[in-house]
Amino acid sequence: MSWLSRSGGRQHAGKRTFSATVGVLLLLVSSLAARNLDIVIVRGADGEEEFGKKFTTQVEAWKAACAKGEVPVEVISGAETTAKLEKRLRTSKADRSLWLVLIGHGTFDGREAMFNAEGPDFDAKQLAGWLAPLKQEVVVIHTASSSGGFVRPLSGKGRVIITSTKSPDEVFYARFGEYFAEAIGGLPEADLDQDKQVSLLEAFRHASKAAATFYENEERLATEHAFFDDNGDGVPTRREALEAPPADAKLDGERASQLVLVLSGEEKQLTDEQRTKRDALESQLKKLREQQTQLGDEAYYSQLEKLLRELAAVYSKA
Known about the structure:
The chain is α/β, with parallel strands linked by helices and 318 residues long.
């Protein structure tokens, strides 16, 4: 073998070693950046063709947002949708949060609110039963008509429930889902606090207001009023209540304001564990501020300093 051949061999080996090293580094970076979140989209029956097109647009908007947010997404649709969903929920991993997005039509027979799937429909009680064994945080974004009937059955600790209607009686097509799908991918107009990302709460507020504006501009009676519940009490909150809340009101919104699909550049510097720690500390700070009068200055500022130091430590590690 000539010197040139041996030299070339060493060069190729060096390139392979370098490439392998880069590959390992990229894998490590990817694993650090990976988020413990799964998103499952359920696409219901189209009904009329015009609605099918709207549902397709929403699904595609969600898929684009998930790609942008680097979060895996599954779409369940077609024949036996209900059976597929039940099976998927049974196989959910306890260490991964779950967002369940329902896109389609809903109905109400006077007793049960239903989601219209291809094949057998499913109702709120069925879905509640499938979700009951799950220990991880679960977000349900139900954008169909009559979705308000799902709030109480699904509400609970570690749950965020968002619906396009305030009750199962609102049975007409709901536009809320169109605006929500548009906002969740990071729509600048929906970023109310200007932190370069759109939280669940911001997407809810944007979509709810956009839907209301649609009916006002069309001079039509609004047939949908979006609700959300994120404190597990089963008593949902409307956007209007957030605009000027009473001083002593205990409204939903704390957890929904912390959950984001497409993270800002700054937020990406934190791992999932660090974000969880940060969110918990922020919740403790909020509760502490509410107790300032009862605690007195000395105890209050002592606890405040401790929490702020812990919060600073989270960011310093990032």
